Amino acid sequence: MAGHCPLLSLKAQALALLARREYSRSELQTRLLAHARKRAAAAAEAPAVDPWDHEAAAAQPQEAPSAEALHAEVDAVLDWLASRQYQSDTRFVETRVNARAARHGERRIRHELAQHGLTLDADTAQQLRSTEVQRAHEVWLKRFGVVATEAHERARQMRFLAARGFSAESVRRVVGGRDPDEE
Asked: What's the rounded Cα separation, in Å, for the pair 94 and 50?
């Protein structure tokens, strides 16, 4: 194939991914394993050896590495990235919380982090809980802006906020028309 460029090494692929955005270790591991499998498949399908190149013809064809070997190679790259602070689960949690906090509730953020095998630290969770009613009110204002007078409209507003991960108490306070600053 003319113009076919070789696949990047695992470190280069990991750095290219991390240059775009933060990744959790588990998410990066999944992507790097897929890349490692693709590299192994490409190596197994290497072009035929030139018949006049006797050294290359004498070399044994390489076997595809086992799944354990690929996992070990990817884990070594992940450890290297973590030791140099290129990848950090703590930093991933901070960026995910900062990106989601304005539009989503604590439950939704916790769920997204759990999908990556991560949890919120106690301080961040407390901060999200303390501002949840205010954040829910801002989301509600942007979407609806007026207190519902009919039950089906109130239910629609409540479903919307609940789907965004806000707590039931926060949803009741906001949809009920109470001021978010009052206790």
From this structure: 53
Residues 156-177 pLDDT 10s: 999 999 999 999 999 999 998 7
Task: Give the separation between CA 108 and CA 151, rounded to whole angstroms.
Answer: 25
Separation between Cα atoms, residue 83 and residue 75, nearest integer Å: 12
Q: What is the distance between the alpha carbons of residues 179 and 157, in angstroms, rounded to a whole number?
A: 16
Instruction: Give the span between the Cα atoms of 97 and 165, in whole angstroms.
Output: 13
CA dihedral 30, 31, 34, 35 (to 10 degrees): -140
pLDDT range class, residue 1, cuts 50, 70, 90? very low
CB 131 within 8 A of CB 141: no
Q: What b/e readout covers 15-51, taking b as 16+ CB neighbours within 10 angstroms? A: eebeeeebbbbebbbeebbebbeebbeeeeeeeeeee
Q: Which two tokens stand for residue 162?
A: 């609940």
> Which pairs count as long-range contacts for 79-85, CB under 8 Å and 24+ apart, including other chains?
80/11, 81/11, 81/14, 81/15, 81/18, 81/28, 82/25
Cα–Cα distance for residue pair 109/122, rounded to 1 Å: 14
CA 148 to chain centre: 36
Amino acid at 134: Q
